[in-house]
Write a structure and sequence with these properties.
Layout lengths: L6 E6 L3 H12 L4 E7 L3 H8 L20 E4 L6 H10 L3 E4 L2 H5 L3 H9 L2 E3 L8 H7 L4 E10 L1 H4 L3 H5 L11 E7 H7 L5 H9 L6 E7 L6 E9 L3 E8 L10 H14 L7
Parallel strand pairs: 1-2, 1-3, 3-4, 4-5, 6-8
Antiparallel strand pairs: 6-9, 7-8, 9-10
Helix pairs in contact: 1-11, 3-5, 9-10
Length: 271
Amino acid sequence: MTRPSEQRVAIAGLGAIGRVVARKLDAGVPGIRLTAVAARNPASAAAFLATLSHPVPIVSLDALSAHADIVIECAPAAVLAQIVEPALKAGKQVIVLSVGALLANPQLQETAARYGGQILVPTGALLGLDAVLAAAEGTIHSVRMTTRKPPRGLAGAPYLIENNIDMSDVTVPVRVFSGTARDAARGFPANVNVAAALSLAGIGPDRTTIEIWADPTVTRNTHRIEVDSDAASFNMTIENIPSENPKTGRITAQSVIALLRKLSAPLRVGT
């Protein structure tokens, strides 16, 4: 029988991140139980679930919220609203990894407010969000971010395709984008969710600026942020080891598990 304090969790998407999160939950997280998944390829999902100690049903995206108290979105940005909206209307919590897609779907925040749901954005691949949130309680003057990724980690991004930028012959570091976090999220939906999260924590997507570099000299996804505010000026750099998907760092899945632990922990550290 489900304990009163136990939270049911469903995962939308079983890519590199979704599989890691599912394995972690299957291994055991106090107060949390995996109860369902949704995936584009049911046959592949079934094969993966058969490797777990406690297999769970595969359901449609629309049905996820009926099986869970918390829905974790680990899917392509294009289906964000299809995952998040039903869960919010059911008053559930949703952990969103496609943070950039939130900028293109502002109605989801309104839905959460109307129905008592909640959108949770984990720290993911970017450190320092607590400091940015604290600084935002005062006045932030500027937020700048520089992202460097191996060229293959950027390949296929809509912005690169639209501007005929080929990653296959990059032999020296090349700046491929400079602009706002909003435009970066639109042009690189699978690459710079960190910029969208940074903008939501601070001064918004239109005042947060970002440069994106295709850099064959790096093997890790590197993000540097610089913040100037009336409370503090600080800069931070993180080098993330890529997951099976070169667009995403390994620490992203671990950040989701850390957030889930924090939801029911007797001691919570951080803002």
